[in-house]
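A quick word before the example. In earlier lectures we treated sequence and structure as two separate objects. From today on, think of them as two lines of the same record. Here is Calcineurin-like phosphoesterase family protein written that way.
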Amino acid sequence: MKLITRSQAARPVTRRLAVGATTAVMAVSLTFGGALATTAQAATSPAPTGIVLGVGASESQRVISWYSAAGTPQVVQLVPTSKLEHGRFPKHTTTFPATVTANTVNGGFNGHATIDGLKQKTSYSYRVGTPTGWSPTYSFKTRDFNGDFDFLFFGDPQIGSSGDVAKDGAGWADTLNVALKANPNAELLVSGGDQVETANTETQWDAFLAPDKLRQYPWAATIGNHDVGGKAYEQHFWTPNTDRSAPFYNGTPATRSGGDYWYLYKDVLFIDLNSNAYAAGSDAAHVDYVSKVVKAQGSKAKYTVLVYHHSIYSPAAHANDGDNQLRRQDFPTAFSNLGVDLVLQGHDHSYSRSYAIKNGKKANADEKPAATEVATGPGGVIYVTANSASGSKYYDLTAPDTTEDPNYGPDPLNPKSHWANSVENQEHVRTYVKVEVEKDKLVVQNVRSSTCAGPNAAVELGNVSWCGPDNGAGPARPVGSIVDKVVIHPYRDNGHADSPQGHDWLRQDGKTGLTLTSLS
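And the structure line, produced from the sequence above:
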């Protein structure tokens, strides 16, 4: 398994750029600062586009990705915002060299650079490009590298799925604005997958990437089934510690996107899986990947959070998909035994929060539906499915159907819901999930980011016939109101790494005691 580690990341350099003849500079030298060291004018080149601030391997790192019309050497300039001189970068500015490769989607180029060595509680400003073609200047803030923090989780923007890219983009931008106005100190934006409707359609990517919030807060990308069909996802998002070997792709890596990756952020080990790769042993490969990462990194974190696209406890249209039935066999026991605390999923364009699930069964038969406080117990895992963050598409809740899957029937305490889910909700309004990470608990909230009014494309275009609580019988609740909130008390026994569901599950040779048959 090849992992890109922090020690392998690009290190900052401060230097002058040797600009080639293709930039038509008249025998002069340029600095990377705000002024050109010349009396002649250099030819300009197009500024990079599609810039997105990505999560790094740790709190002190970010990855910046972009598209470019030119394949010439490019860099990221970074400076503490307080060091800008009347909005201009100082003459001697720290730069990070970029990797620029030919873009297989639009014929241009895509680049990325890892910026490392960030200091805590600091505002930074950055720009991307060359002295003949800089992007606008963007800023982000680091927070305290220790202690509590909040992150936001977004389900399926899927720009273009309503049939109107502009409306979908407007709803997506509004959710980001609403969420970050309410939570300006949120530290990560975590994706549930399906950024766009069609993998290689750049007009959809342009609308997804339009909000400047994606250049101010780190986006932890997740690949969905609508992202996987081409290379645009990988070209837009460079992720840390990524294993791009064949089992983590659904199809050839030469033409499709994929990969599993992980990162540490304060007290959380995040592991992100390409759940599109599930057939022919890929689930076993995912489990092996999670096992190895937990063994190597789990002792550095208090919580383990898994993120992937396909909700295995779907409450709506995808509840009984064949691939989800397979994942329901392959994943839960492994996740319980590996000490996973929280699983974040998308795909079903509706909201659900599971009971504490241990080894694929309800951990505590007495846990009541919609409980506001849950102690998971040893091996207990909470699974959350996020609703649409853009309003481009909603799926209505389905009734449990044992003729489709005899193992995914009704909840005895609430027969309208599937047995695994404590809460299932669909109001045809945009929502996002807020997760508070605290010393001894996780707090999960599903928050409304719209009413029935626009921007809410699926409602505006008549793609759904009602809106509001109780299948439209009640009026829409206000923006910022809470759909669901739960305080989770994860199980701990002498620390995360030594808990029965963590350390003991891993054999001394680093392999799991797991076979696919043991998960059925």
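Notice the following. Residues 78 and 126 are 4 Å apart (CA to CA). We will return to this example when we discuss secondary structure assignment.
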